[in-house]
Amino acid sequence: MRVLALFVSLVCAFIGQNSSETTTITTVTNPFVIEGVSRDGWIGKNAIIDLEPILKDLGKSASVRLHLDGWRPSGTPEVIVSICGSEESKSGQSIIIETKIDKTNCADQSIKVEVKNTFRSPDKRDLGVKFVSVNFRSDWSFGVLERSSFWVAALICFFISILWGGKSYLLFGPVTALLLSFIHWDSGFDLLTLGVVVLFISFGFKKNLFKTPINFEVGGRFLWILLALALLVRLYGFDFGLPHFYHPDEYRKAQIAFRVVEFGKFDPNYFLHPSLLLYLTAFMGAIRQLLFAAESSVVMFAESGRLVSILANTLSVLLVYKLGRLLFNNKAISIIAASLVAFSPLMITSARYLKEDSLLTFFVLLASYLAAKASIHRNSKLLLLAGLCVGFAAGSKYSGILAIVVLFVFPLVYRRLTPMIFLACLLVPIGFLVTTPYSVINKKQFVNDFNKEKKHMSKGHHQMKIGSWDHFWMYHAGRSVAPSLGWVSFLVLLVVIGDALKRKDSTILAVAFLAATFYLPAEYVNAKPPPQPERYIFPCIPFLSLLAGYGLVRLNSFLSVVAVLSVLVPSVLLAREVPNDTREVMRQWMITNLKGGTHILIDAIPYTPSLPEFKTTLFSAPEQRRNLTIEEMKTIGAEYVLVTSLSYDRFFHTRTSDQIVRRRFEELFSKLPLIHEVKPDYKTYGFHNPTLKLLKVE
Length: 698
Hints:
By secondary structure, this protein is α+β, with helices and mostly antiparallel strands. Helices cover 54% and strands 13% of the residues. Helix 6 packs parallel to helix 10, helix 12 packs antiparallel against helix 13 (380-396) and helix 20 crosses helix 21 (540-555). It is globular.
């Protein structure tokens, strides 16, 4: 039966793969493979459409249909079209070229359009013809979707058939395979992650692995030692990079806090994020001035904001312990979960920035703890406080509003549904308005900034979208969750979820649901390219650590130690690199080895060092990067070009990034001599320690 089920599923996967046989390129659907086409579709004298991302996914051959609109106010366009090096001349009001391409014989992986006769438009552009679309249709080998779509469908169905088998698999296995084969996968790493997730959840559902959890008595002293270590590891090197502000958001926030204290300007006039962190930063700065006579400056307030993040992050460790004790009544589970959070590389690294994520996580956890305690002990006042904390979470970061689910989840789990839930919900907007009062007073600016941030989340960084379905919702699972908790903890928590589904364990499922509440929106938004997309799933980590702690303690005590060490070691290695940021190392080398006033092209301030000793030209704008040819560098008199991995990595990261810019960087790396390179000893993490390359323009 299993063999039959698997065979039918593979047939369905193959059918799905070959049925997905068409794809279309337009200026809207995929603008990053098109060069020389304006946003309104008009081509000037020349245009190039990069076929490399498409050919990579094709089978042996495909049919191509290029559509150009030849209408214009005067004259008829005459064009020469080259597809994979094969030229064809066309003219007329509607230009359609249909041909077949063989992937193996396409040496020039592009479509080139050359217009022989342009006209002058009213906006003083030389225009030739209008680009409409390019369609690709598979010739029944494999579809236009990449081959890995078939193989991942086969892999996942194989896992399920082994674990489930029988008639039950015959019902949903083929359908699963068919659907999976339609997914346009973007990364093999995510295919593997998806397979691992399915396998381990199914394994937990099928097998009885867990034994009665051990419980050991942990003195209060041990907990305080853990909190002290968590605080110390976060405080170490917390002032790194200052006064240069290597994080792009920190200067603005520190400046607002400075104005609050020094000039009494409480209106931030900034609402890309809510205001609670800004006011707490100002308060911390005022305390430091009062107690330690700290000199008032934007830098001092940046340090104060980082201290707020560090304190919130450390207190989150305590809340994880308290929540674990409340839900599981087991000190061993609570200590292991708290230890995973205390030494998580993501938690530690993010705590050192003046950013909202640590504060958001603290209030999400506090609201969860209060709601759980209110439900267990029938304390309505605590539920009202939980509602207020949800408002504070939203006042830390807009996504904090998602924490409102805790007001319903725990009362539902413990069957404590009362009218007080709705009163608690009414306190949510009050909590938000208390922390961000100028969202009402300065309503126009608030609406403008809020819409701008919403647009940013939907369109991605520099319009580089990373879609959820391209990675089958696994982008953060493999790149954020697993490195944050360690792969041991990650695999164990998957088994725990499978086991909870089988046993219908409402407590475990409630914790998993809360983690999913913050995970799924982070996958849904398109703003995921580096640097540090991991911060978007920040509130998930404490809840997932509780699941991991529960599973580790019930599986094996030695495994628990291994899991904690697997996050502690990377955190120590990252901490070693904090004092010497690669940007400062590169800056000192350039000052020593280059003449003052040397003309240097630099990419992406503040991802590169501050260089007041030299003449610098910035090329971080999208159009500047597209025009960044070696000839253009020579034209403007640049002698060197300095690039940073925090910028160029994103163009090699996903097919949805700008392919033209990627080729520009490839040209720089291949044709310009590398004069000096600075790399981190361990690795780049977040906004810290990028790889820097200094290239000579020759």
